[in-house]
Structure to design on (398 residues):
DNA sequence: GTCTATATTGAGATAGAC
DNA sequence: GTCTATCTCAATATAGAC
């Protein structure tokens, strides 16, 4: 058992190094030699810890979906207006990006590439669950008259996710302040960019 | 000269077939054999028309930047409020997506991949020009008090482009009506999704 | 658990016949 | 201008010694 733990350490180390490379250049453009170099192993030695290169990707993304869904579910829990709920959903997205930047970057990068493979269908299932959480909150907001009725909830969901999907590309905690950005964002989404009618 | 024209026909045919594949699966995951199959040639024969595979990508994207910038410049020409200008910019984006769906899809797909190569720096230069067009319109709108002053123009530009960048992924002219979507979008951007204060 | 060495495959590209 | 045939190289993966 103690031995097993040590093995897992190595696995995690490899997965972390590979994750950084996958996020940066994509899975296809990262070779097993690149990964080996990062952890100080010959590429062949990686195969003692993972069956295939794709297996490393599963090792990285495998458990992350549940973590993500849990975050969004928690954010959508009863409490406050629909607008406050959406704000919490935005925050949840940012926190996920801050705490798991590689996973988030890989998620976006590979959606239309590697994750089209049937063996990665669980990724799309996760995204569907998250979409339902968002749509439910938006629809509830419309019923409560806190959100305009003449919008398409799935359309707004897509707008939000499209924007959030690019967060890993430009978000840098050293130059941006999370709270500021989320507020800016929420304001833009809720008030729009148009000037108030009664100036 | 007549001969030259025929050669160009073949080039265009190859570029078109390759473009569809690049847009669908990405450049990296499209082989020269795939391209050859599409046009009924052996892969080796492609090299009579293009020096390299990457050269086909240049053939596709090479002239498109100027077309794009011209579209956006036309949309930003004086006339109407800043809001009307932005609406025209949105339309320009949609039209580009309708008329050149492959080029637009490739543009987005390869931005963080192939187009990082120095030989594709012209792609980023094109995007910078487009960003300036947007930012100028937004800043003008703020000066004219048609757009809220407490927003960051580059931030709003990024929001818009992020959303537009995903258009090729889901836009289908058979199920969506362009005008409707643009209106929906513009309204969401300008009015926000929040309910009017005075219901 | 890691290394040496190598098998295997797939992709881009080329030479020369037709 | 296209085909046949092939080269070359890079990448995943494996076998067996240490």
């Amino acid at each position: 058992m103690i031995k097993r733990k040590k093995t897992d350490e190595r696995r995690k180390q490899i997965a972390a190094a590979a994750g950084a490379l996958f996020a940066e250049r994509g899975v296809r453009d990262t070779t097993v030699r690149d990964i080996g170099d990062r952890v100080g192993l010959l590429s062949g030695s990686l195969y003692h810890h993972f069956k295939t290169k794709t297996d490393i990707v599963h090792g990285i993304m495998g458990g992350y979906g549940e973590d993500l869904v849990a975050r969004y579910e928690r954010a959508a829990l009863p409490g406050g207006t629909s607008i406050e709920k959406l704000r919490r959903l935005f925050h949840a997205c940012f926190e996920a990006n801050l705490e798991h930047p590689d996973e988030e970057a890989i998620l976006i990068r590979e959606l239309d590439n590697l994750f089209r493979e049937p063996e990665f269908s669980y990724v799309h299932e996760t995204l569907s669950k998250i979409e339902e959480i968002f749509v439910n909150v938006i629809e509830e907001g419309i019923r409560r008259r806190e959100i305009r009725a003449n919008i398409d909830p799935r359309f707004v969901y897509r707008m939000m996710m499209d924007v959030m999907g690019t967060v890993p590309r430009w978000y840098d905690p050293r130059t941006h302040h999370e709270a500021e950005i989320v507020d800016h964002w929420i304001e833009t989404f809720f008030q729009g960019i148009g000037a108030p009618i009664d100036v």
